[in-house]
Design brief:
about 160 residues; 6 strands; globular; 5 helices; alpha+beta
Length: about 160
């Protein structure tokens, strides 16, 4: 599904609360811009049967007190099988998720520091890291410029 169709699906599936569809529409250019920097329109995300995404905690080898929580997004199902996740566990599955949906969902996951997108099939060592804080800052800046919304008035959890 191309990026424009993904954005439209996000808007259509947003809660019809009077605010969320308009907010998704407003931030769509930021999501499209980020998605266009990646190579694939969908990625496989490892998750539980309850649809909780698998989170990996990475620790700095020289400063063990420094750690961050990441989600891995794989370009192919074969790469998932070569990942550190226990795919032999019947409670774990990998499903394809549209890239804009991954970026949007990341905004709501406060425990996550970033998502690492493995763009090259067969390479699960080198990926493109997109930090949650960076996405939030881009959205806040974009909305402030285009909508005249001061950063202080942005909802803390827009996803």
């Amino acid at each position: 599904m191309n990026i424009d169709k993904q954005i439209q699906e996000l808007i259509n599936d947003a809660p019809q609360d009077g605010n969320t569809p308009a907010l998704v529409t407003a931030i769509a250019p930021v999501l499209k811009s980020l998605a266009s920097q990646l190579r694939h329109e969908q990625y496989y995300i490892v998750q539980t049967l309850d649809q909780d995404w698998a989170i990996t905690t990475l620790q700095n080898q020289s400063q063990v007190e420094l750690e961050k929580n990441v989600i891995y997004a794989f370009s192919s199902l074969k790469d998932v099988s070569n990942s550190p996740y226990p795919m032999h566990d019947p409670q774990m599955i990998a499903l394809p998720i549209p890239v804009t949906h991954i970026l949007f969902q990341m905004l709501a996951m406060e425990i996550i520091h970033s998502i690492i997108f493995f763009d090259t099939p067969g390479n699960t060592v080198t990926g493109t890291e997109i930090q949650r804080e960076h996405v939030s800052e881009l959205i806040a800046s974009y909305l402030a410029q285009t909508q005249g919304v001061p950063d202080s008035e942005l909802p803390p959890n827009i996803a």
